[in-house]
């Protein structure tokens, strides 16, 4: 832990300045020691984790990178065609390839966006913290009272139930996605409390 803090705040350590409390868990995902401290400090227990959340978030980021590359290359190819550097067939190929790749990645992105990676439970305050990947490929965390979660038994049957189960709240129409086929329920008793 000390080695990690010296890397993050070398000048503060040399000067003997007291580090802010958030510095101890600023980089939550770098080592298991800092993650353990974060859990102890806030009294949250992990009850669900999805092991492929990093790949899902990466897919969301690749989708955006591909869109920006297509947005740059498509007009540039028209400029090169106007200057007679490339033929019209090459321009058509560049546009078709770029847009077909974008279409494919956005179709796959439909499945990977808003997928729940972790669910943490705080018994003292009866709160659930849900961590998921958003459209931009960033981790988002929201704290939800257990009473606000729609039970899975109250959800209607959907054609997407084979891929993921919807995680809904009463207070908002936003829908998150859970995958019990590949996701791991760490604590089944606590998971039953929030369903």
TrEMBL record:
InterPro entries: Tmem186. It comes from the Eukaryota. The keyword Membrane applies. One of its GO terms (cellular component) is mitochondrial inner membrane. It is found in: Mitochondrion inner membrane. Keywords: Membrane, Mitochondrion, Mitochondrion inner membrane, Transmembrane, Transmembrane helix. It is a multi-pass membrane protein. Belongs to the TMEM186 family. This is Transmembrane protein 186. It comes from Phyllotreta striolata.
